[in-house]
TrEMBL record:
Active site feature: 203, 220
Encoding gene, per UniProt annotation: srkA
A molecular-function term among this protein's GO annotations: ATP binding
Any GO CC annotation of this UniProt entry: cytoplasm
Aminoglycoside phosphotransferase domain location: 38-257
Keyword Glycoprotein: no
Protein name as it appears in the record: Stress response kinase A
Superkingdom as given in the UniProt entry: Bacteria
Record organism: Pseudidiomarina marina
Function: A protein kinase that phosphorylates Ser and Thr residues. Probably acts to suppress the effects of stress linked to accumulation of reactive oxygen species. Probably involved in the extracytoplasmic stress response.
Gene3D superfamilies reported in the protein's UniProt record: 1.20.1270.170, 3.30.200.70, Transferase(Phosphotransferase) domain 1 (1.10.510.10)
Length: 332
């Protein structure tokens, strides 16, 4: 059998190989394979011979170990067992993680649902409740093999990638690092380990929620990791107005604390974690640029104007870090 662990672009993951992989675990697609919107992995929806819809997720080679993927699977199953709406993989042939010709994959029920819109404050309180329910389960145990939210991964390694990337225009290299380096030095002073560490969704934003039968459901735990609770909360805050974002956070936490306690000191991590995400996102795109799917989806990443905007974004973020953190109402 051939080994495709170095097949970064999934070039050898043909429809025939996908069908053979599914057949290997007793699944027989009766429809075509509909590619879903996923860049890091390859995800396909299909109708099987039982006339039900399923989703097959093929994991990007070499990104996670088997143990790390299985911890993701276990976490989602724990959530389901506690009646927290989430999508967990099916157990087929006695396992949730399968191997076929160098590729690893899992099969999920296709749940469907509507995208969650930002909505009003009532919607935000509802989202807070669901994240609180998720975290109440998450705190019951710890990950053994999945990574932590860390300065080293999100900043040090990310900037090392960008420093050697040909995608960062030469004429902007000095300007970019003139702000990226002091920003990184500021972020380095923040001790994330001073805050309670717990299991997280890891990439908790509205795009990873679905509204199904009027119930909010979490999807895509591919970035599940360990870190402070605020990591799963701050991306729900919208807009640049500080007073508005303070109100949003108050409402979000009002719902959250119905199910899970929150340490108000973690509000000081909102802007640092935003900085982590901005830097890490650029490095992620740079590392994945060899995958043609990324070039088609993010053509602007190779354009001069994108990097000019990123220099401005980093300057704005550095300024935001100089401001005092959001102060919650006394009940928090």
């Amino acid at each position: 059998m051939s080994d495709h662990h170095d097949d970064f672009s999934f070039h050898n993951l043909t429809p025939e190989r996908i069908a053979d992989a599914l057949a290997d675990v007793g699944v027989d697609p009766q429809s075509g394979l509909l590619a879903l919107n996923s860049y890091e992995n390859r995800v396909y929806q299909f109708i099987a011979d039982d006339n039900r819809r399923y989703v097959a997720k093929f994991y990007r080679p070499a990104r996670w170990s088997d143990a790390q993927i299985l911890e993701e699977h276990q976490f989602t199953q724990e959530l389901l067992d506690e009646e927290v709406p989430a999508v967990a993989p099916l157990k087929l042939a006695g396992a949730t993680l399968h191997h076929y010709e160098g590729y690893r994959f899992a099969v999920f029920p296709s749940v469907g649902g509507r995208a969650v819109e930002p909505g009003d404050l009532d919607q935000l309180e509802r989202i807070g409740r669901q994240i609180g329910r998720l975290h109440a389960v998450a705190k019951q145990r710890q990950f053994a093999t999945r990574p932590n939210v860390s300065y080293h991964e999100y900043v040090t390694e990310a900037l090392a990638t960008l420093s050697t990337s040909s995608l960062l225009p030469n004429n902007l290299h000095d300007a970019f690092f003139a702000i990226a380096e002091p920003l990184a030095n500021h972020l380095k002073q923040i001790d994330l380990n001073a805050f309670t560490q717990q299991r997280l969704h890891g990439d908790c934003h509205l795009g990873n929620m679905l509204l199904r039968d009027e119930q909010l459901m979490f999807v895509d735990f591919d970035d599940a990791r360990t870190g402070p609770a605020i990591q799963d909360l701050w991306m729900m805050l919208a807009g640049d107005d500080r007073a508005e974002r303070t109100l949003q956070l108050d409402v979000l936490l009002e719902g959250y604390q119905e199910f899970c306690d929150f340490d108000s000191k973690e509000t000081q991590l909102i802007e640092p974690l935003r900085s982590f995400r901005i830097i890490h996102y650029m490095a992620w795109l740079a590392r994945r640029w060899g995958d043609s799917a990324f070039q088609r989806a993010f053509p602007w990443f190779a354009e001069q104007r994108y990097w000019e905007q990123q220099v401005l974004t980093l300057k704005e973020q550095f300024a935001a870090l100089q401001e005092p953190p959001i102060q919650l109402q006394p009940q928090y």
